[in-house]
Amino acid sequence: MTGATTRRTGPEQLRSRIAAELERTRARTALLTEAVDEADLMRQHSPLMSPLVWDLAHVGNQEELWLVRDVGGREPVRRDIDDLYDAFKQPRRDRPTLPLLPPQEARAYLLTVRDKVLDLLDRVAFTDRPLVVDGFAFGMIVQHEQQHDETMLATHQLRAGPAVLHAPPPPEPTARVAAEVLVPAGEFTMGTDTDPWALDNERPAHRVHLPAYAIDAAPVTNGRYREFIADGGYEDPRWWSPAGWRHRREAELVAPMHWRRDGDGWAYRRFGRWAPVRDDEPVVHVCYHEAQAYAAWAGRRLPTEAEWEKAARWDPVTGRSRRYPWGDDDPTAEHANLGQRHLWPAPVGAYPAGASPLGVHQLIGDVWEWTSTPFRGHPGFTAFPYREYSEVFFGDDHRVLRGGSFGTDRAACRGTFRNWDFPIRRQIFSGFRCARDARPEESQP
Question: Which of 8, 107, 209, 311 is the most interior residue, by most CB within 10 Å?
Fold first, then answer.
């Protein structure tokens, strides 16, 4: 939810904000699904992704399940489609073969559900039970749809054919950015107890002590990554973990996804358009294993999730953890590259207003950043409102990503927000930054 809602507001203000967020989110869903014809909507563009029309009806089905039926206690709109749009029952590879709602019927279904939700919003009391306190259930649905919008944006990046999405280029750099920043040893507060729309895996707030470390002041750029490629990084098993080297060979990885040789350089396919790789942009579409190998080649390592969050939130003057690197106010176009405002990462130095107090840049937006941490609950974690959102994914199979990307909406991105994926995934808008342990002389106060 917007940062303003962290300051508890009256019910009518909250209703207005929720209605605005629902409308803004649905407009993005419409943009992504109306940009292509019905055949394209029904097609599976990659076995890693659903047909766009599945995502379209799925967001409506989740809205019906949680808001119309659970919060509202009303009769189902379409109980007959629940199994079709259950992400746990229907693997992505099988979804094209299901009797999915055709586009026109899916859109009509979403309209019917939304009408019932808006009627419910006019009447709901935000104090009845934990699910609706501060509008949480509505916020959960907004975030769920925005997450699927980012997934649909990734599907657009994978689809063949002419470009159908358009956006202006990101801003040019306006600030010089240091190579790295030293983060002093000490405690900070990780997670949150106060953000009303924070999801279960962001809770509870807890104190974490970290030794001193250094972290890149910006994500690793294409230029630096090209040096790794040119130095034979993809051919040298020294830099790769055993699992990473095995995957590199099996998947025949030679460069980030969507790159191809272009004379003496490289080109990158962005939503149907080829463009030269720009050296000062953060590298994107790399998997965890590639990020880990680069870090080893550079004599560094990936940051832990706690190191990433301290660099992003900790204010050395006050000792408190902010909601965002720049403070508690909502992101604007001056702070971060979010919300599909642009269709690729901004060059390093483009968002000085979004830097943390320590001088770490572009922690929010641009690219999801791999960390070395397996996905688990914070100490004291409690699943809410259902185990399948977070808890069923806990374990060593997934690595945590932080910070959001150019395709992440502000409603689904904050300094505590946690994403996770398999270490081999790179169709997502993923990049990384590196870290290292502080040297003894740097650790002295």
Answer: 311
